[in-house]
# Entry
Amino acid sequence: MIEARDIATATTDAIVNAANEALAMRVNVAKALRLAGGDELEAEAQAQGPCTFGQVVWTGPGRLACKAVAHAVAASDGAICIQRATLRTLFEAERRGYRSITFPALGTGVGGVPHGLGARLTLEAIRTFAAFAPVHLRAIHIALVTPEAVTAWSTALVALDDGA
# Structure
């Protein structure tokens, strides 16, 4: 489900943070999650870092309405590991038995990836994951902050469905 919403209000089993290598939660999605979930999210994540691109670390939820937060290091300064980070997140969520997860538009903020490309990479990774016939994970949400982002992601989804 692609929707315009504040990711910090998601009520899925897991929420994904668009993390940086240092796991600092001071801007964009990360800041919103830290402000809603508490500074302990950042402290717990940073205790597991620093990370490399494509890596994902998991923390508790803090005050967020989920079971865990996945901190996915997906893109920065031209380095793009969106698909690797997405797949690692999805497979770990499945291993944990989670039924639902909410992603932001990984890499499209500080990472500088255009929404159309970020959407295509993420949606292709989700399709790859689905081909493994997961048993637990049934609902994957994409929380976007602007109507323009929703349009870009919806367009990418239609193009993926059309085989483009």
The CA atoms of residues 60 and 68 lie 5 Å apart. Helices lie at 28-37, 39-46, 82-95, 115-130, 147-161. The chain is about 40% helix and 20% strand.
